[in-house]
Amino acid sequence: MKLKPSHHRLQHPLIRLPRILFLLLSTTVHLSTANSSSSFGTRHSYSLTTFDPSGNLDQVVRAIRASTLGVPIVALCLNGECNDDLDSTDSTSSTSSSATAIPKEGGIYLSIPLHFISSSPLITDDATPRIMPLTSKLILLHTGITSDGRALSDIAMQLSLDYRYLYGQEIQPHDLLSGLSSKMQEMTVKPGFRPYGCALLVCSLGEDGRSNAMYRVDPSGAVVSLSSVDEDIVHSEDGTSVNKSTKRRRSVSLLGNWESIRQTKKELIQHQLETRTFENEEQIQEILVEAARRSCDELDEASTTSCSSLESRTPVLFASFCCERGLDIKRIITL
C-alpha cells in the first residue's frame, strides 16, 4: 500500500515562518526599549528608580523643573530682633493713624500674583487655595502643578488633625516637615506612581517672635531652611573664636516661575527686600505687591521703578502672618 505524503511536513516551513517573524519583532522591541532607558537624543527613561550615568533620577529632576514653573511666590520673614534695629524716631514720625505698625515679634509676609485670572474682571478666584492655615503658628503654600499642590495640602491638613487628635496639641514644625517629606519621597520610589510636581513653602511662627522661619519642601522630599542666621563671633583670650549668640535676621524667599524676569532684576528685588528698612506694614505690602507684579512679565530697562499698565492691573494676593493678628489675606486689584 502506497502512503500519501504528510501535509504536516509540507506545511512545516510555513508554520515556522510566523514564529521567526515574531522572534525578530520581539528582539527589535527589546532593543528599542533598552535604548530608551538611557537619555540619547530625544529619548528618555520613564523609570523612577533608575539612576542615569550622572547620578540623577530623571523623573525627580523633571518634577523639580515642574515645581519652578508654577505661580511665583514672594515671601519676607521678619523676626523680633529685626524690628529692634529700626529707627524708632523715624517709625513714630512717619507712621500715621491709619498705617498698621509692624508687630514687635515680627511676622511673615507673602505676595502671590494672580495673572492667570486677569483676563476678565469678573473672575476673582480659580477655586484653588494658595495659602492654607494649618494651625495658629503654621501655614502652607504651594507652587508648581496645581492639582499636586491641592493633594499635598490635604495631606498636610490630615497630618495636623491626626497629631492634634493623638497628642492633644498643635503639630510642631519638624513633625509636619517630616511627614510631608516622607510622603513626597515615597512617590519617587513607589511603582506605578510619579513624583509630585510642586514645591511647598511652610511658614512657622516662633513663640517669642525670634524664631520665625520658612522651609521649602522639594519634590524629592528634601527640606531646605530658608531662614538666614547671623552669628556673633567673639574672640577669647587664647585667640580662639567662640560663637556668643546667634541672631536671626530677615530672610527672603522667591519660589515658582521667575524665569520671565531677568536674573539681575531678580537679585535686585531680593537685595531690596533684605536691606530696606520698613516703617509699617503698608510699606511692606507696597514693595511685595510690586515685586509680585514684576514677576509676571519682563520689564524694560527704562521701567525699573514703575510697572507697566498690564502689570499694574494684575491681581495680587497679599497675606500677613503674625502672632498678634494671625493670618490676614487681602486681594489687591487695580482697575
UniProtKB/TrEMBL annotation:
Signal sequence, start to end: 1-34
Gene3D superfamilies cross-referenced by the UniProt entry:
Glutamine Phosphoribosylpyrophosphate, subunit 1, domain 1
Q: Name one Pfam family in it.
A: Proteasome
Q: Which GO terms describe its cellular component?
A: proteasome complex
Q: Which UniProt keywords apply?
A: Proteasome, Signal
State what protein this is by name. Proteasome assembly chaperone 2
What is the species listed in this Swiss-Prot or TrEMBL entry? Cyclotella atomus
